[in-house]
Design brief:
2 copies of one chain form a homodimer. Chain A has 20 helices and 13 strands. Chain A has 563 residues and is an alpha/beta fold.
Chain lengths: 563, 563
C-alpha cells in the first residue's frame, strides 16, 4: 500500500466504484462532442417507462405514494439506483455506491409498512443522495482526496472507519429515507467546479462541456439527471447554490445553526468565522421543504450542539402565502417587495444572467409586486474580507490532506501551496470585527429600504445573480463574489431556475467595456455557441434565518415564471 | 495631558465622578470594620420614606405604577439617582453619573404621559443601570482603563466620542427606560472581582470585606444596595452571574444571539470562540423577564446582525407554568426533573454552597419533583479548553489598552504580561473543533438523562454552584470553573439567591482533605467569621437558548425557597 503511487490508488478506487454498478446497467459513454446533453430523452433510453415515471417524480410527490403504500420503497429505490448508475457513467458524479444496502433498507421499509400499515416517517422510501462529506456506515468518505482512501478523514485506526455515521444520516434514516450513494466533490471543497484525482471531472449533464458546479457538484449533476430526487450538499461560499444553479435545480443555503452539520467531514474544520452549512438541492421547492421539515421534526438541536432550537415556523411561511393569495382571505393579499441586484459592480453578469433577471423582474411586476433597485454597501468588501477566513490556516489543513498521498492539486486551488503564513489570534479577531461591521452596515441598509417600499416592510427578498455566468467552463470560474457575500452575511438564499441559454438571444455584447482583467476574463468566457441550452438560474436572498419565508417566496417566483 | 501621569488622570476622573453627586446627597463613608453591611437600614437612614418605598420596589412592580401614570417618572428617577449616589459613596460602584440627563428624560416621559395618556413603552419611567461597556451619549466609556479616559475605546478623533450609543441603549430608550449611570468593571473585564485604577475596588455592600464580584461588579453592588431596580451586565466567563450571586440577586446569562451586543465596548473584541453575552441582573425574575421582553419587542435582529430572530416564546414559558401548576388545568401538572451537581470534581464548594444545594434539593423534593445526580463529562476539560480562547491573542488587546496610560495591571490579570505567543489559525481551529466535541459529548449526556427520569424528558435544569464560595475575598478568586463551563457550552443560566452564610451553621470542615493546591486555596479562603451574613446563591442551568423556560424555572424555585 505504502509503495503504491497515488495514481494506482486513485485508479483502484475509481474502478471499485464502477464495479459496484451491475453489468446490466452498464452503458457506453459517448464522446462529449457527440452528445453534449445527456438529460431527458438521452438517459431515458436506458430506462423502463416505469423507471422514468418514478425518477421524474419530485420528492414531495414520491412520498405521497410511498407513505401510503401505493409505491413500494423497493421499486423506487431500484429505479433511482439504476438512473444514478447511468448518471455516473455519463458525468462522473458518484464517489460511493451502496445500492445493495439501499435495496435491503427499502425492502425492510416495505415490510414495516406491510406489518404496521403506516410509514416509518415522513421520508418513508424516499431515496436521498448525499455529498461525500457525510459518513455512512460500510462505505468510505474520501472527499476526493486519494490520501483519505481507506481511512477516516485521513486517519487510520480510529475505529470509526466505515462504522461512524453523521448525525443527519441518523435523522434521515429515522425519517424513513433510503440512502444509496454519495456524490462527488472537488478535493478541498474550495472550488466551484468538481474535480479530483479519483473520479476526474464531474460534467454538467445538460451541457457536458460545462462544469456541474461545485463543491456539491456531484449532487447537482446527479439530481440534474434525475438520478436522485433530492440530496444534501454543503455551502461555505456557494457550494449548494452553484451546482443547483448550473443544473437548473432549486437549492437552499440555510443560515448557520438551522441544519445539523454534526459528524460530517470537512475542510479546514474549526474555522469559525464563516461556517459551512448543510442544505438540500432538488427539482422543486416542496421537495426542499419536505426534507428540511423532516430533519427539524427529529429535533436536531438535541444532537447537534450548534443547531438552534427552531422548529419549522409555519407562521413565517403563512405570511408569504397570505400575501401572495395562496391561502387566507382576500384582505390579506398584498404586495411583495423585491430588491434587484443587477450587478455587484465588481464583475458584471453575462447576457443570459441579465436576461434571467429581466424575466423575474417582469413576472413580479406583472403580478403587482414591487421592485426596487438594490444598491447595498460594497459587495467587494464583503468578498475580500470573507476570503480571509479561508486562508486563516495558510492551507495547513489542505496541504496535510494532499501530503498523505502526494497527489497533485487541481489548478484552481494551487494558490494554497504558496501560502506560508498563518493568521495569528489578533488578526483573526480583527477580521471578525470587520465582518461584524460589514454585517451591521448591510443589515442597516436592508432595514432602511422600509422607506423605499410601499408595503410598510423592508424588502422581502433580493433577486440576484448567483454567479456571473449560467455555468462555468472548466477552470474558468474567475469570480465567486456573487455567491460568497451571502455566506459572509449568513443570509438565507434559495436558487431558482429561470431559463436556458438561447444563443440566438443571449449574444455576447460586442462593445462591452470590462471593468478590469477579472471582469474581462469572465466576459470572454461567455460564448453563446458553447453555452447554448445551459441552465440559467438566479438566487433569492433573505435575511438570516428566514428559511420558511424564503422557500415560500422561491416557490411563488418559480411558479410565476413557469418553473 | 500627555505629561500627566496615569495617577493624576485616574484621580481627576475619580473626582469628576464624585463631583457629579449633588452636595445634599453627600455622606461620610464609615470605615469598613465599623460598618461591614451597608444594605437595608444602614443606607435607608439617608433616604426619605417615599424614596425607600420606590427604590425597594422591583422593576416589574415599578412599571405597573409608571405605565399607568400613578408614579411619576421623575419621582422614580430622582429616588434611584439619590440611592445610587449613596451606593457609590459606600462601595464605589459607578463609572459614569448622568443624573441630570436622567431627570430631564424622566420629565419628558411624564409630559408624554400627560399629553398622550399612555406610556412610551413597556419600560416607561423605569431606571435601568448599565455596565460601563455600553456607550451612552454625553458620557465616556472607560471600561476601567485610565488610557480610555477622553477617548472612544482608546482612540481619539473617531467622531464617536460621547455621541455614539450602543444598540441596546437605543432600544431601552425606545421602550421608555431612564438611563442614569454606568457601573464599575475590572479593567480587562477578565476578573471575577471589580478593581481598576480609576475607582479602586468595588465592595460587596452586604459584606464590604468581600468582593461584589465581577466583571459586572458595579451592577451587582448597585442593585444589591437597591440603587437600581434592574441593570445590564455582560458574561463571558461568569460576569453577570458572579455579581448576581455575590449580591443576592437574580441574573441571567442568555445564550449567544439572544440579546443585542451591537455597538458595545469589549475586551478582545473579535475573539469568536466563546462570545460575551449581555443580560440583566435584578431583584426578581419578573424584572429580568420584563426587560428581556421589552428588548425583544424592539426586534433587535433588525439592528444587530448576530441576534437570532427569536421573539419571546410564550410556549416555552407556558410549558413550565403548566407543569408547576401555575396556569392551566390539573391534568397538565407534573414533575420537573433536576440534575444536581454537588461538585465538579476539580474544586469542591465550601460549606455554605453545599448547604444551599441541600436547601434547593429538599425544597424541590418536598414539592414532588425529581432530582438525579448530575455526573456529566469532565468539567475540567471544559474549563481548560475554554480558557484557551481568552489567550488566543496572547493579551495583545489588553496590553495595548494598558500601554495607553502606563497604568499597572491588577494582580489578578498580571499573567497576561507573561504571554508572548499568539495562537495561529490552525491552533484556533483545533481549539474550536475540540470545543464542539466537548459540547456534543455534554449534550449527549444531557439527552441521555431521559432514561433516568420518570418525566419522559431529559433533565429540565441543573442545580449547580456558580462559584465555590458565597463571594470571593479580594484577590482570592482562585477558580472560575463553576461559571465558565456554562459559557463554554453556551447554555442558559439563571442565578437564584438561596440563603446567607450563618457562621454558626456553615463551619469550616476541620478534616477536609483538599484535592490539590488550588482546591486548598479555595478551602482556606472560606472563613465563617469573615463570611458571616454573605449572600449564598446557586445557578440553574438549561440548555442553549432556553431563556423563557429557565426564567420560569428560576422563578418557581426562588418562590419555593421563599426568595
Amino acid at each position: 500500500m505504502a509503495t503504491e503511487s497515488w495514481k494506482e490508488r486513485a485508479q483502484a478506487k475509481r474502478e471499485a466504484i464502477l464495479a459496484l454498478i451491475p453489468e446490466e446497467w452498464r452503458i457506453k459513454n459517448p464522446p462529449i462532442e457527440k452528445q453534449v446533453d445527456v438529460t431527458g430523452k438521452y438517459i431515458q433510453q436506458y430506462l423502463t417507462e416505469r423507471e422514468v415515471e418514478i425518477t421524474e417524480t419530485t420528492a414531495d410527490e414520491i412520498v405521497k405514494h410511498t407513505v401510503t403504500g401505493r409505491w413500494s420503497a423497493e421499486d423506487v429505490a431500484k429505479a433511482f439506483c439504476h438512473r444514478a448508475a447511468l448518471a455516473h457513467q455519463l458525468v462522473h458524479c458518484l464517489h460511493e455506491i451502496f445500492f445493495d444496502a439501499a435495496i435491503a433498507d427499502a425492502k425492510a421499509l416495505d415490510e414495516y409498512y406491510a406489518k404496521h400499515k403506516k410509514p416509518v416517517g415522513p421520508l418513508h422510501g424516499l431515496p436521498v443522495s448525499l455529498k461525500d462529506q457525510f459518513h455512512v456506515k460500510d462505505v468510505e468518505t474520501t472527499m476526493g482526496y486519494v490520501g483519505w482512501i481507506g481511512t477516516f478523514e485521513g486517519k487510520i485506526g480510529t475505529g470509526k472507519e466505515k462504522v461512524f455515521e453523521s448525525e443527519m444520516v441518523r435523522e434521515l434514516r429515522n425519517s424513513g429515507a433510503v440512502l444509496y450513494c454519495k456524490t462527488s466533490v472537488p478535493h478541498t471543497l474550495m472550488i466551484g467546479e468538481t474535480v479530483n484525482n479519483i473520479i476526474g471531472l464531474t460534467h454538467n449533464p445538460k451541457n457536458r462541456s460545462l462544469s456541474s458546479g461545485g463543491s456539491s457538484g456531484g449532487e447537482g449533476a446527479l439530481i440534474g439527471l434525475r438520478g436522485s430526487p433530492v440530496g444534501f450538499g454543503t455551502d461555505i461560499g456557494g457550494s449548494i447554490r452553484i451546482p443547483a444553479a448550473f443544473n437548473g435545480l432549486y437549492g437552499i443555503r440555510p443560515s448557520v445553526g438551522r441544519m445539523p452539520y454534526e459528524g460530517m467531514a470537512n475542510s479546514m474544520d474549526g474555522q469559525n468565522s464563516i461556517l459551512s452549512v448543510v442544505g438540500p438541492l432538488a427539482t422543486s421547492v416542496p421537495s426542499l421543504r419536505l426534507v428540511m421539515k423532516a430533519i427539524l421534526a427529529q429535533k436536531p438541536w438535541l444532537h447537534d450542539p450548534l443547531v438552534h432550537e427552531l422548529p419549522w415556523r409555519y407562521e413565517q411561511e403563512r405570511e408569504i402565502l397570505e400575501i401572495t393569495g395562496a391561502i387566507g382571505d382576500a384582505s390579506k393579499v398584498g404586495k411583495l417587495a423585491f430588491g434587484v441586484l443587477k450587478t455587484d459592480g465588481v464583475v458584471n453578469p453575462t447576457p443570459p444572467i441579465r436576461r434571467a433577471i429581466d424575466i423575474v423582474v417582469k413576472a413580479m411586476k406583472d403580478l403587482g409586486h414591487e421592485i426596487i433597485e438594490w444598491t447595498p454597501p460594497s459587495h467587494r468588501h464583503l468578498h475580500d474580507e470573507g476570503l480571509k477566513s479561508w486562508v486563516f490556516d495558510a492551507g495547513t489543513d489542505i496541504k496535510g490532506a494532499f501530503s498523505l498521498s502526494g497527489e497533485p492539486y487541481a489548478k484552481q486551488i494551487e494558490f494554497y501551496k504558496q501560502l506560508d503564513k498563518e493568521f495569528i489570534g489578533s488578526e483573526i479577531a480583527a477580521t471578525n470585527v470587520k465582518m461584524r461591521q460589514l454585517k451591521k452596515e448591510y443589515l442597516d441598509y436592508w432595514v432602511s429600504t422600509e422607506k423605499s417600499t410601499s408595503t410598510g416592510r423592508p424588502v422581502d427578498a433580493i433577486i440576484a445573480p448567483l454567479a456571473p455566468f449560467p455555468a462555468s467552463r472548466f477552470t474558468m470560474y474567475y469570480y465567486y463574489g456573487y455567491s460568497t457575500w451571502v455566506n459572509m452575511l449568513d443570509y438565507t438564499s434559495v436558487v431558482v431556475p429561470v431559463t436556458n441559454v438561447d444563443k440566438a438571444i443571449d449574444k455576447a455584447d460586442a462593445d462591452y467595456k470590462p471593468v478590469d482583467d477579472r471582469d474581462k476574463n469572465v466576459y470572454e468566457s461567455y460564448d453563446p455557441e458553447i453555452y447554448d441550452g445551459a441552465h440559467v438560474s438566479l438566487q433569492l436572498v433573505g435575511r438570516r434565518l428566514q428559511e420558511e419565508q424564503m422557500l415560500a417566496i422561491a416557490e411563488y417566483v418559480g411558479r410565476s415564471i413557469g418553473k
